[in-house]
């Protein structure tokens, strides 16, 4: 039976650890937190060794993973073996290795498979094999009508209560971005002066405590573009402009993220180890799915074109080239978010 991340967290303390777990889905925050909960619980149960395998390219050595399953522990202890499948598709060879493990799991190994994507078509005999001896946990994206309930539960888990209007307002501000919602909840837990659960935050207090991140946060502006959210990116940019932000002040972050994407695209194009490049580029696990979606939309040449356009925008903003810097920046972000908008680049 398929579990939710929240259901998994509740079951960990009420049953013995299973030999294998699959945690995957399109919502990276929920995948990350469910996997973290399992890691912490496993450590408490004596799984002190941890080995990580990143199967993010065609050149991954499934034989090495298979050998690890068969090899005894160097320290005579229980081991947590993590297999990271960004696409949640192990391929024929990988599926065979996973199924073989599940047919006769070693008593000292706990297998955790994580994936950054999931759909009804992702499953197969390998995931069914995990389900027979363990649990399959799917972190579906939180739907718009579910966001308020998710935020309210998150607030309560941090010791903060809020009335319905305040929760709904926070849901509107984060515009469906679960990571942004989690960050705002953590901020509220720090700023609400330990408001007891019996005295919930009202709308006025919520608005006083929470910055309108959906409009004014440059980090989320770029994330929206990378994530393919053209309309929210345009709204956030308009908000930054209304607040008096200057284009040159934004371009440093824009260029940095475009450079990261270009470097990742080059590694992906030559079939290299994308997981290693994520580490080299210091891209957090929670943000890797955002970059992967962006890489699916654009190839190396287009990322280089985006960087060249960013350089042109910076020159415009500094008075060294003709044009409207705000309009050019908007077109660049829209092109990153939506391939059909690439044709707008460079237009005056």
From TrEMBL:
<protein>
    <recommendedName>
        <fullName>DNA polymerase III subunit delta</fullName>
        <ecNumber>2.7.7.7</ecNumber>
    </recommendedName>
</protein>
<dbReference type="InterPro" id="IPR027417">
    <property type="entry name" value="P-loop_NTPase"/>
</dbReference>
<comment type="similarity">
    <text>Belongs to the DNA polymerase HolA subunit family.</text>
</comment>
<dbReference type="InterPro" id="IPR005790">
    <property type="entry name" value="DNA_polIII_delta"/>
</dbReference>
<keyword id="KW-0548">Nucleotidyltransferase</keyword>
<dbReference type="Pfam" id="PF06144">
    <property type="entry name" value="DNA_pol3_delta"/>
</dbReference>
<keyword id="KW-0808">Transferase</keyword>
<dbReference type="InterPro" id="IPR008921">
    <property type="entry name" value="DNA_pol3_clamp-load_cplx_C"/>
</dbReference>
<feature type="domain" description="DNA polymerase III delta N-terminal">
    <location>
        <begin position="21"/>
        <end position="116"/>
    </location>
</feature>
<keyword id="KW-0235">DNA replication</keyword>
<dbReference type="InterPro" id="IPR010372">
    <property type="entry name" value="DNA_pol3_delta_N"/>
</dbReference>
<keyword id="KW-0239">DNA-directed DNA polymerase</keyword>
<dbReference type="GO" id="GO:0003887">
    <property type="term" value="F:DNA-directed DNA polymerase activity"/>
</dbReference>
């Amino acid at each position: 039976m398929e579990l939710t991340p929240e259901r998994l967290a509740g079951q960990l303390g009420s049953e013995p650890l299973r030999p294998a777990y699959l945690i995957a889905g399109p919502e990276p925050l929920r995948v990350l937190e469910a996997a973290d909960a399992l890691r912490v619980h496993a450590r408490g149960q004596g799984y002190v060794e941890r080995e990580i395998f990143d199967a993010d390219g065609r050149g991954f050595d499934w034989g090495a993973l298979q050998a690890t399953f068969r090899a005894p522990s160097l320290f005579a202890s229980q081991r947590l073996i993590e297999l990271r499948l960004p696409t949640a598709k192990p391929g024929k060879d990988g599926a065979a290795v996973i199924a073989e493990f599940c047919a006769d799991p070693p008593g000292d190994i706990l297998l955790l498979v994580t994936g950054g994507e999931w759909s009804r078509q992702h499953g197969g005999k390998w995931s069914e094999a995990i389900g027979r001896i363990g649990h399959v946990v799917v972190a579906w994206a939180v739907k718009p009508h579910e966001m308020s309930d998710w935020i309210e539960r998150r607030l309560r888990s941090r010791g903060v209560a809020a009335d319905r209007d305040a929760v709904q307002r926070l849901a509107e501000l984060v515009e469906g971005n679960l990571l942004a919602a989690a960050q705002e909840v953590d901020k509220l837990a720090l700023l609400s002066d330990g408001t007891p659960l019996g005295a919930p935050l009202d709308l006025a207090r919520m608005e006083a405590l929470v910055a309108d991140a959906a409009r004014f946060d440059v980090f989320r502006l770029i994330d929206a573009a990378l994530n393919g959210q053209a309309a929210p990116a345009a709204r956030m940019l308009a908000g930054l402009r209304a607040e008096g932000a200057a284009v040159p002040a934004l371009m440093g972050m824009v260029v940095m993220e475009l450079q990261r994407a270009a470097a990742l695209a080059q590694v992906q194009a030559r079939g290299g180890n994308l997981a290693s490049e994520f580490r080299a580029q210091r891209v957090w696990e929670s943000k890797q799915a955002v970059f992967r979606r962006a890489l699916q939309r654009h190839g190396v040449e287009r990322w280089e074109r985006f960087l060249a356009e960013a350089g042109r925008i910076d020159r415009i903003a500094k008075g060294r080239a003709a044009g409207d810097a705000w309009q050019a920046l908007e077109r660049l972000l829209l092109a990153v978010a939506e391939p059909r908008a690439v044709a707008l680049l460079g237009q005056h």
